[in-house]
Amino acid sequence: MVRTFLFLSLIFVVTLASVFAGGQEEADTSSISIMFRGSDLEQAAIGGSVQRFTEATGIEVELMYTAHDVYTEKLAGFFTAGQLPDVIQVDAPTLSNLVWSGYLTAIEPYISEELVAEMTPSNIAQSSYPIDDKLYAIGLRDSSVLLHANRTYLEKVGARIPESVEDAWTIEEFDEVLGKLAELPEVSWPLDIMRAYGTTGEWVTYAFSPTLQSAGGDLIDRNSWKSEGTLNSPESVKAMSYFQDWAEKGWLVPNSAGANQLYNDDRAAAIAWCGQWLYSPASNALGDDYIALPLPNFGTGTVSPNGTWIWGVTETSGNKEAAGQLIEFMLTDNQYREDHKALGAFPALESFADISPDYTDPNKLAIAYEQAVYAVARPPHPAYPTITIEFAKAFDAILSGADATRSLSAAAKAIDENIVDNDGYPPFGE
After folding, report:
1. Which of 33, 54, 95, 230 has the most crowded CB, counting CB atoms within 10 A?
2. Which tens digits make up the pLDDT trace of 155-169?
3. What is the pTM of this model?
């Protein structure tokens, strides 16, 4: 069977034979390569750590930086050509597709038990393949989404301030708070869901599929691996209906307004539904007015997302031991950790959390780190690229006024058809 390698907005059809075809030159075990993306600061952190690794081990490392916008396409080209780098950065929700397609190797044989023992449950979830429950990647960092709010506005409307994830607003409370905030003359929009990030991309699934799970639905049934009846369940429809209602009332910051309405000079938004990365600019601008809060409870408890760019070793690497050694060196490198602490990285290793005070301070991001206990990974299934594309399309349609049940049903149908077209992606669904 031809296995379909899908990456978000790109579809490439390749066979495993093309990856493992003979005729390749014998690997040079004195050197390895690493492919990565990231900001200028992230590039510098990786480059510095790799240099220290070479100085410590004598193993030369080829740095293969690729711009984020073309990383997926470039990586797919390597897969098709069968000439994979030894170490690659992997976006966590695509991990199952890559493992199923034969591109990643189980990583535990190549990193220490001590490092594995430090992984948070959320890190394990983002790095595991459900068929064999093995780890195929590992990361220093993770991610989460929370509510960033203007405390003064909340106090003006008499809103209850949640103090823990268990104490989160119910969706009914949240809806009521938004309504009161909308009446404040200084508030143009009660809520920013970061539409400036785009309404049809990965941000949508990452940030808003947890509301389905919190309501009792999901993107797909994680036992039968069928979307029909789950994505378009009454629970999922109800969760999405809140967003449609807020959009229709004009309570959501529009795309055209940008992503800083919470903390710019006008402070026209009261609450921002965003990742932990908003903390630094928002708290710096708002000062004591800034407060971090858990996501609302849509019925079964607060659920947060997880998953970010993590490190894996390719199946075709000619020097897996050195590849694993490089990953371990980076994740335990003190300077690499300091560099990522300065970036506000969400801890995915316990020892990194110990040196990340923002995530232990209740006046800063402790609530975000607490939410990691309640994180649900995006569906670990080879069809995930189709799942995320179809859900994002449905979400965008719902915000634009389309019927929520019909939109989610169309998405569920497209997801199930993709799975059927790939014979169920065996052994999934068997």
Report:
1. 95
2. 999 999 999 999 999
3. 0.91
